[in-house]
Amino acid sequence: MDNAKVLLPREIDLDKCITANARYDSARIELTDIPRLLESVVRVEGPVVATISFERDLNSMRLVKGTAEADVVLVCERCNEEFVQHLCLDFVLTPDYERAKACNLLEKYEFIEFTDSGKIDLYDIIEDGLILEIPAFPRHDEDDPACSREGSSWSYGEVAPEAQENPFAALAALKGNLKQ
Ligand SMILES: [Zn+2]
Question: How far apart are the CA of 83 and the centre of ligand 1, in A?
Fold first, then answer.
C-alpha cells in the first residue's frame, strides 16, 4: 500500500471516464481529504488506496466500480486496547436512477448522485463506504494473543453472567480484577 503513488482525483466526469475507459489502479487518497473517516476511528494507518473503473453495462447504465482499502485503528470492546482493523470496501454504483426506474431495474442497482457541477465525487463514495465497513462492535480476532483478556477466566464466545445483566457491573468486576 505504501507504493500507491497516483493520487485519486476527487471529482470525475463520468461520461468522459467511460468513453476513455479510464481506470485508477491502487490510487491514493490523502487522509486530510476524508475527515469523516478520521473522526470515526482512533486513527488511520497508512494511505487509503482505491482501484476504480468506469463502464456502461448491458442496460446502458453508467457504472462506477471499485474497491477501497484502509487500515484503521479501533478500540477493542473486549480488552479496551487499540488494534488495527483492515477495511475493505467493494462497490458498484450508478447515478442513473431515472433510467433504472423507467426500466424497472431499481432493485438491481445502488445509486449515487452527481455533484452540483455534474461530477461524481469519488472521495464521498469511498469515505461513506469505508465508514459503513467499520464494525459496530470492534474486537480483536478471537485468537489474537494481543487481546489482553486472553488467558483470563473468561473464554471467548462466552459472555460473563454480569455482562448479560448489566454491562456496567461487568466493567466494575473487570476493574476489580485488574486491581488485584
Ligand atoms: Zn482485545
Answer: 7
